[in-house]
Design goal:
158 residues, alpha/beta, Rossmann fold, 5 helices, 6 strands, globular, binds guanosine-5'-triphosphate, binds magnesium ion, ARL2/3, Small_GTPase_ARF/SAR, GTPase activity
Length: 158
């Protein structure tokens, strides 16, 4: 599972939820982190990539081993929607990811300033392609809501 998105979107906090680690201890990822967890009888290896721009070139090295993509967005940070859109569209152009299912996590929905999923879908040109299984999931990694639902959908696709 390739986990990507802009810096500060909440990728590692979602991983902490999935691995039952304290979400308070999460710090910005340097490079990337690998975690494995068991879900629904499957062993899921998660590549939690840094969203820091200086590490973007790292992402492509993991495309060939990617079975599913989780793209995480900070729904409360609308100033960065265009930047997130550009990063997402470039990611989805990769030949190796053409038919890989995409779970789009609309994160930080606990914040009152969070955009509604429909507005996010419009701003980020979702779904990106009809050839790919796609799901938009609202969640709050902080509160732990929406993550199980998103992962359940993703595991049904693989
Ligand atoms: N309010 C709120 N804050 C969140 C949520 N998820 C993550 N955060 C906070 O957002 C900040 C960034 O979270 P990270 O999980 O480190 O984000 P990341 O996407 O892994 O960031 P990089 O590793 O730098 O790419 C932290 O302060 C988290 O506590 C959420 O659902 N709601
Ligand atoms: Mg991180």
């Amino acid at each position: 599972l390739l986990i990507v998105g802009l810096s500060n979107s909440g990728k590692s906090t979602i991983v902490a939820r999935l691995t039952k680690e304290p979400v308070e201890d999460v710090a910005p990822t340097v490079g990337f982190a690998v975690e494995t967890t068991k879900m629904e009888g499957l062993s899921v290896t998660m590549f939690d990539m840094s969203g820091n721009q200086k590490y973007f070139t790292l992402w492509q090295h993991y495309y060939k081993d990617t079975t599913a993509i989780m793209f995480v967005l900070d729904a409360a940070d609308s100033h960065r929607f265009a930047e997130a859109d550009a990063v997402l569209q470039e990611l989805l152009r990769a030949e190796q990811l053409k038919r890989v299912p995409l779970l789009f996590m609309c994160n930080k929905m606990d914040l009152v300033t969070a955009a509604q999923p429909a507005d996010v879908a419009a701003a980020l040109h979702l779904p990106a392609s009809s050839a790919r299984a796609f799901q938009l999931q609202s969640c709050s990694a902080m509160q732990g809501s929406g993550i199980k639902e998103g992962m359940q959908w993703l595991l049904e696709q693989v």
